[in-house]
Design a protein that fits this description.
This protein is 55% helix and 6% strand. The protein is an alpha/beta fold.
């Protein structure tokens, strides 16, 4: 009888289906609940209250640009031309002014969008370039840059918001579950958006204010509208000067960023995209370090040499890859009220620079120096 009981016990264990069916039912319930949450998150009722789609970078201006670009494409179609770079390009190149001047020169409409992102370097811009070229297939990419992108301070400064972001890596072909969810799930992106408030005491209103601020600054073409004016008679603040000198370090070139610039150009060639590089202007007083401290005279001379080294390196990259590099010393004199600060143009200076850039493009296209970015219109 004992043997029979043992046998029965063994059979009972083997046929214990309720635990398995509970697991299956729980799994189905989870899937249905997740689907319901996703459907709710995608509904217009919810989405009209969501200020932006969060991709886990916690870089509000970048994610505002993504939303702004989606709206641009929905209304006008994919752009013929993308403008890339950091805040200098964002505030310095107005796509509408460029489009207007280019049309006057060529009779063609060059639809451009400015995807400048504040605080980034050329290595990060290379990530954006790969993602945007794959998604929108522009005919022309304009990279706005200058010596500030290639300082020693830029060499080892990696921004974890982009370097370690699962969505960016997913877009670049490196699969991860979180990257997939950020790309496809509105509910997961909503969860990420709320996570941005964790470091600020869960005050969603502060996040909303920051998003609203960028929504006011970004035009429909991605340009960073900036009406504030710098007083050029004011000396550079000591804190700003120290920060600037830290960036320069020992005046060694950032090979990582120079290599990334060449990567942008070569990727364009592979995908049939014309890439041009343009030097973003800076106020002359940026180089007058002796006006702040007499001991900086040697630094000022070395800075001038460093700028020459950067421009030489970029020209070599451009020549090696059969494209152009236009320096800002060719631009007509920019007005004193055309500057936000020593690094950035404002709304009064950027139209002059944008028209000059359009003329450079038109002349280069007419001469056959660069490929013609024929309009989709």
């Amino acid at each position: 009888m004992f043997a029979r009981l043992q046998e029965n016990q063994r059979v009972t264990v083997k046929l214990n289906w309720p635990a398995g069916s509970t697991l299956i039912r729980s799994l189905l319930l989870f899937v249905l609940l997740a689907a319901l949450i996703e459907i709710t998150a995608r509904s217009s009722l919810v989405q009209k209250h969501i200020p932006l789609q969060a991709y886990g970078t916690n870089h509000i201006q970048f994610e505002s640009q993504l939303k702004n670009l989606d709206a641009f494409v929905a209304k006008k179609g994919a752009p013929d031309c993308l403008i890339l770079g950091n805040s200098q390009a964002l505030r310095g190149i107005d796509p509408q002014k460029l489009e207007q001047a280019y049309q006057e020169q060529t009779g063609q409409t060059l639809l451009c969008y400015n995807f400048g992102v504040v605080g980034t370097d050329i290595a990060t811009t290379f990530y954006f370039d790969q993602i945007l070229i794959h998604k929108y297939h522009p005919r022309l990419v304009i990279v706005g840059t200058n010596f500030l992108d290639y300082t020693q301070g830029r060499e080892n400064r990696l921004d974890p918001r982009f370097e370690e972001n699962d969505w960016i890596h997913y877009e670049l072909g490196q699969f991860s579950l979180q990257g997939w969810l950020l790309e496809h799930s509105y509910a997961f992106r909503l969860l990420k958006l709320f996570s941005y408030t964790a470091q600020d005491g869960l005050h969603f209103d502060r996040l909303e204010k920051e998003i609203a601020s960028w929504n006011q600054q970004l035009t429909k073409y991605g340009y960073g509208y900036t009406p504030e004016i710098m007083d050029p008679s004011e000396s550079m603040a000591k804190g700003s000067l120290r920060k600037f000198l830290r960036e320069l370090g020992d005046f060694n070139l950032s090979r990582r960023n120079l290599d990334s610039l060449e990567g942008i150009i070569r990727l364009g060639q592979q995908d049939g995209v014309q890439v041009v590089v343009v030097e973003m202007p800076y106020h002359p007083s940026l180089l007058q370090l002796t006006s702040e401290n007499r001991d900086l005279a040697s630094q000022q001379e070395r800075l001038s040499q460093f700028i020459v080294e950067v421009n030489t390196a970029i020209r070599e990259i451009a020549a090696r890859n059969h494209t152009v590099y236009w320096t800002s010393d060719q631009v007509e004199a920019l007005p004193e009220d055309g500057w936000l600060d020593r690094y950035h143009l404002n709304t009064f200076g950027s139209p002059i620079f944008s028209r000059w850039l359009a003329n450079q493009l038109a002349t280069a296209v007419k001469s056959g120096q660069i490929a013609n970015p024929i309009s989709r219109n």
